[in-house]
């Protein structure tokens, strides 16, 4: 059956070679019979910039990476994500949290599978909060797992993670934030909602997001959304073996264009080619 994949960057900087890997990987798995979609994940009001979103679309067009159908821009659909939050609130699966990052860091003693600090549950049974302090909304993970009767699995078809059924570790993440105090909605909620809405049947992304699948599968089961298959690709690394990042000055597509690179040369860049070779099934 043909697959529907998506490339879903956040406009927090210019497109770089790591993005090219992700886009090519998704397009390759969709194949000529499938659908390759583009989604702009710009709900982070602090880090995302409209100018980066416009530049992202321009660079993708120059590279010839054109999606099937209209581009979905998450910031234009906040009411849909807020409706999911209200659904979970009505089911008593969320609770308000007034803890600051400093407070969480001071109290947390456990690390999640992705390296983040696990929330210690300070506000889980709190009846009041400091006046004037903004609230986030956290998923009561234990209650959620009890409702869906345990950890969901997922089907991995990627070469690196080991194809086959994978068992989730959502409990190890603790009570994650689904409603941010700044933007109102969080990544896990938005991405799982949109994958279901857009009919994404194969989620393609980097290995740095492998562990996030556990949490997103919980949300899919809670909301009755379809279960896609997953394919995680290798990360594009620099000479020292570190992940290339736009925050650390990774080679940007714009800079390569300015240096005289053609679109074909960028798509065939040795780092891009090498990363795809070890990733594609």
From TrEMBL:
<keyword id="KW-0067">ATP-binding</keyword>
<dbReference type="InterPro" id="IPR049940">
    <property type="entry name" value="GluQ/Sye"/>
</dbReference>
<dbReference type="InterPro" id="IPR014729">
    <property type="entry name" value="Rossmann-like_a/b/a_fold"/>
</dbReference>
<dbReference type="Pfam" id="PF00749">
    <property type="entry name" value="tRNA-synt_1c"/>
</dbReference>
<dbReference type="GO" id="GO:0005829">
    <property type="term" value="C:cytosol"/>
</dbReference>
<dbReference type="InterPro" id="IPR000924">
    <property type="entry name" value="Glu/Gln-tRNA-synth"/>
</dbReference>
<dbReference type="GO" id="GO:0006424">
    <property type="term" value="P:glutamyl-tRNA aminoacylation"/>
</dbReference>
<dbReference type="GO" id="GO:0004818">
    <property type="term" value="F:glutamate-tRNA ligase activity"/>
</dbReference>
<dbReference type="GO" id="GO:0005524">
    <property type="term" value="F:ATP binding"/>
</dbReference>
<comment type="similarity">
    <text>Belongs to the class-I aminoacyl-tRNA synthetase family.</text>
</comment>
<keyword id="KW-0479">Metal-binding</keyword>
<feature type="domain" description="Glutamyl/glutaminyl-tRNA synthetase class Ib catalytic">
    <location>
        <begin position="3"/>
        <end position="107"/>
    </location>
</feature>
<keyword id="KW-0030">Aminoacyl-tRNA synthetase</keyword>
<keyword id="KW-0648">Protein biosynthesis</keyword>
<dbReference type="InterPro" id="IPR001412">
    <property type="entry name" value="aa-tRNA-synth_I_CS"/>
</dbReference>
<dbReference type="InterPro" id="IPR020058">
    <property type="entry name" value="Glu/Gln-tRNA-synth_Ib_cat-dom"/>
</dbReference>
<keyword id="KW-0547">Nucleotide-binding</keyword>
<feature type="domain" description="Glutamyl/glutaminyl-tRNA synthetase class Ib catalytic">
    <location>
        <begin position="173"/>
        <end position="252"/>
    </location>
</feature>
<protein>
    <submittedName>
        <fullName>tRNA glutamyl-Q(34) synthetase GluQRS</fullName>
        <ecNumber>6.1.1.-</ecNumber>
    </submittedName>
</protein>
<keyword id="KW-0862">Zinc</keyword>
<keyword id="KW-0436">Ligase</keyword>
